[in-house]
Amino acid sequence: MNQKKKIIIIGAGPGGLCAGMILSYRGFDVTIYEKDEQVGGRNKNLKLGDYTFDVGPTFVMMKFIFDEMFEEAGKKLDDYLQMDLLDISYQLRYFNKEVDVYWDKTKLKKELEQKIGMTPEMYDYFFDREKKRFDHIFPCLQKPYHKLKNNFNLDLIKTIPHLSLGHSVFSELGRYIKKEEDRLVFSFQTKYLGMAPWKCPAFFMILSYLEHAFGIYHVQGGLGKISEAMAKVTRENGGVIHLKKPVKSLLFEGKKVIGVELENGEKDYADDTIINADFSWAMTHLAKGKTKKYTPKKLKKKKYSCSMLMLYLGVKKTFDLEHHTVVFSKNYEEYINRINNSGQMYEDLSIYIRNPNKIDSTLAPKGKTALYVLVPAPNNKSGLDWDSIKDEWRDRVLDIMEDRLNMKGLRESIEVEHIITPDDWEADFNVHLGAVFNLSHTLDQMLYLRPRNEFEEFDNCYLVGGGTHPGSSLPTIYESSRISSNLISDKYGIDYETLNKNYPKK
Ligand SMILES: Cc1cc2nc3c(=O)[nH]c(=O)nc-3n(C[C@H](O)[C@H](O)[C@H](O)COP(=O)(O)OP(=O)(O)OC[C@H]3O[C@@H](n4cnc5c(N)ncnc54)[C@H](O)[C@@H]3O)c2cc1C
User: Fold this and answer.
1) Helix (H) and strand (E) counts for the chain?
2) From the CB of 22, is ligand 1 less than 6 Å away?
3) Lowest CB count within 10 Å: 297, 330, 336, 358, which one?
4) What is the pLDDT of residue 2?
5) pTM above 0.90, yes or no
6) Where in the chain are all domains bearing CATH 3.50.50.60?
């Protein structure tokens, strides 16, 4: 580049940081404005006394994508982070049984046969069939869909038979597992998208497949370390990150975004601006009065994911509990339907707990535990007043942990704690409706129909993060950053190497 092109990125969440480190490596002049005093957004860490928690993500899936992103930024992930493959990906607790999902396939097949009657042959059939589906679908997710013609690529057309259109993840699983409650072993993962397995399109079977194919990793020090490492790489590559600098609005010249105005009144100008702040929140605040396609009225008609009630407990005890434990309700379907469709909480809770002690001694002092508890909850369309009900639900969660997980003495041993409610996600994290997994991943809100990486409404404006294509989880968020970085690089004729072999490079 003769003269460095300047890129402003709004938000130092996973999407913004990943784009920041790639574009700064390619020679762009990158400036990130982050409203918080630390980087990471929903993927930052939370310090309470001697305890460290991850605020959001705790599962690293598809580690190879993480490796690739660091390589795209000219670095090696292993020089920044220690990622450990889990022997037991997670433990699933039913009322009458526990299922350990082992990484070792011999142990896993034995467990599945004993606990849910899935024969080793049926598991192999599942694995081979879902591998084919994944091998077709994943390349399509790596392509950009900012132009209508992108929808007619050959890979996408070849994928159609693998989409099992008209089926949900739950009904599709009937091929492999007869008993409905046992299907949860391969379908609770739709919660990663904030969706119900019986509503989630069948092609999201790839979620459970990819866990079985690539394993689940923990990051020493917590997954917040990934954001810190990406921020470090961005700075090493010459990018600048301003903390505690909230953006107030986008600046326009006609349809063209020319920069940002900060809350403190400062203005900064750029050739291109990337929005990482939650998409619907950004439309209602940063592009207020400018967007015609995503007005509050139109956003109201969109479908959104559920939210999460979070408990972070610093406890002066250790527990015999796997690293990841999912506790199912008696009637999981009713629970998920209540929170997704009726906007209600339901006493028969299903919760997820992370107990990092077994493999990470850095998060709590010796003999103590930093417990992370996640409880699916309605998004803020519900109108629930969380300030007045959060303590009641906290108590129900602790009851489940003490009774069903045999964590006796838990309550008395809590030294520090913090709660994040759906209201807090909206107020403190700028997440529209507190819908933490963004716009739902329904067919009518995906690919070309999702807000596009090269934003369709304004010029010189790009999107990264869970609200754009391909969607909301760390690997797909990083893909959004890579796609937007490639589109910007193409626009300026930058010569670059990308490890995304499915990106149609000019
Ligand atoms: C509880 C929970 C658990 C999850 N678990 C997993 C998991 O295990 N694995 C996984 O892969 N994914 C998981 N996810 C999903 C996803 O990976 C994370 O939500 C991810 O952090 C989203 O990244 P993002 O870049 O889209 O948005 P964010 O993380 O929200 O980043 C946006 C950034 O923009 C900043 N910002 C907002 N407004 C402004 C403004 N006006 N000016 C400047 N900055 C602004 C924010 O402070 C933030 O830093 C989880 C999410 C949650 C909430």
Assistant:
1) 15, 20
2) no
3) 297
4) 57
5) yes
6) 6-42+65-74+223-301+440-491
